């Protein structure tokens, strides 16, 4: 049964969604913004114009702590939030020089910042791929000793113990995932998507279900179904970016529990997009949508941003589905003018921007169809995809074909999902274009 709009006057809830903060503790305003290194805006400040802006910079740069603090400081002025979903990637992109101490400093500093500014608001984190060092290296739980991830998971459990109950902390310590009740009728599952990552070399040993996480997920969803609970799934890496075997199994699970999974929320790509899930028999009926929210960081060449989801609220019979979402940005061109104050502004509201009757899976499927023929609407999406700072090169036929295919693809390496789309492009060419635009 597809989700129905809530009855008139039914309560709604606002969820703050933060992802990919990427704090660079070596960020220096006025330093070189266009350097040959993989990460810029660090080192000595240069006199005169052209250096890194005070609040951040368009380019290969991450964020200073004061920009993340400014984002959090202005939140109390917004309408109240029911909870916070925070899907990881805390440290900067200087992956070649990070130690475990660096990663733990980033974890504790940013966690402390969130606790200070968000007060008693419940925060539900997920583990990003940049939390480890070496980056992406997450050994399965059966790897013990110094090579294991215990140093990271133990520190997370300690840092987040005020936010999560003991059973959630136990599975977090074991393998970086957990489940918790958000409020009566709504359960949260936080997945460790590093166990599906194409960049995690430990998965060469076993990529099917290396931490038993999918098996555990099925158990949690079956219990939720039995108890009449709805489930929100959060994670860092979106499912279509996963290794094929894991991704297809996850797609199968979403199909089986489409009546229980109310929403899916991910990050990692730094841009504003979504991934569709269809019934496995015909690949035509939309059963779920994975929302992929834009990053807080500027990396690469973006405005800082964050997302707010409006969901069906806490009442008997609630769908707990996403009803709408808003994206907020800090326009760096304006903010970095000398003497200016940082002004976080709403970039757009989804239903208003795209003319959606609701924000259920069928509406997003219909939007992809509309993108094919309505070029103006697609170019509006391209602008918002980049948080209001698109690249100079326009998105023409091949780029558009690859992007529409990505939106329709909730499982990796499946050419059949893109066959109904126009303009048609050979799938290997589409995959090559996807690789070119990946920022993380």
Oligomer: single chain
Task: Give the overall shape, derived from the CA principal axes.
Answer: globular
First and last CA, distance: 36 Å
- Helical residues, percent: 25-40%
Mean pLDDT across all amino acids: 95
Number of strands: 12
Order of helices and strands: EHEHEHHEEHEHEEEEEHEHHHHH
The strand line-up of the biggest sheet is: 3-2-1-10-11-12
Largest sheet data: 6 strands, mixed
Structural class: alpha/beta
Unreliably modeled segments: none
How would you describe this structure to a colleague?
It is a single chain. The chain is of the alpha/beta class. The protein contains twelve helices and twelve strands. The strands form two sheets. It has a six-stranded mixed beta sheet with strand order 3-2-1-10-11-12. It has a six-stranded mixed beta sheet with strand order 4-5-6-7-9-8. β6 (230-234), α6 and β7 form a beta-alpha-beta unit. The protein is globular and about 60 Å long. The model has no long low-confidence stretch (mean pLDDT 95).
